[in-house]
Design a protein that fits this description.
Elements (H helix, E strand, L loop, with lengths): L1 E9 L3 H8 L15 E3 L11 E6 L2 E12 L4 E7 L5 E13 L2 E12 L4 H24 L1
């Protein structure tokens, strides 16, 4: 099992940050490099089992299933369906925690893969997706 994590301290309250990032179906609303998503089958993006689909020009790029969402603790957990890299059991959590300077947002994941895939996962998901999104989120509240 491998893990990755990125975090950022945001100069806003956890509640303010959660209002921006807490919608499982709204990642593209605050992340500059993620295409808009739709929730399959008209499901609620607040209920476990909902699947968000990212597509460009009708071509599906990624699908992710919500496993848990807890508005009180400001976190949601999801799994990647049909990953773009040779990984399995990819489970990620996006969470907001109180911090002395406002809020700390942690985006983390655990997954199975060959050791030689880890640098690709760190680059694509850790830096490209998590890092870029957290940088944009921090700038939004700066």
């Amino acid at each position: 099992m491998h893990t990755l994590q990125r975090s950022a301290v945001i100069t806003a309250t956890p509640d303010e940050v959660w209002r921006v990032i807490g919608d499982f179906g709204g990642l593209a609303d605050w992340h500059p490099q993620v295409p808009p998503s739709t929730i399959e089958d008209g499901a609620s993006p607040e209920h476990p089992g909902a699947v968000r689909v990212f597509a460009i020009d009708g071509k599906v790029l990624a699908r992710e299933r919500l496993l848990a969402l807890d508005a009180e603790t400001h976190s949601y957990t999801y799994t990647v369906i049909d990953p773009v890299l040779p990984v399995s059991d990819y489970v990620a959590t996006l969470a907001v925690h109180p911090h002395a300077d406002g809020a700390e947002v942690r985006w983390s994941a655990a997954y199975q893969s060959a050791d030689d895939t880890v640098p690709q996962v760190e680059s694509l998901f850790g830096d490209g997706t998590y890092g870029t999104g957290l940088t944009a989120l921090a700038a939004r509240f700066a």
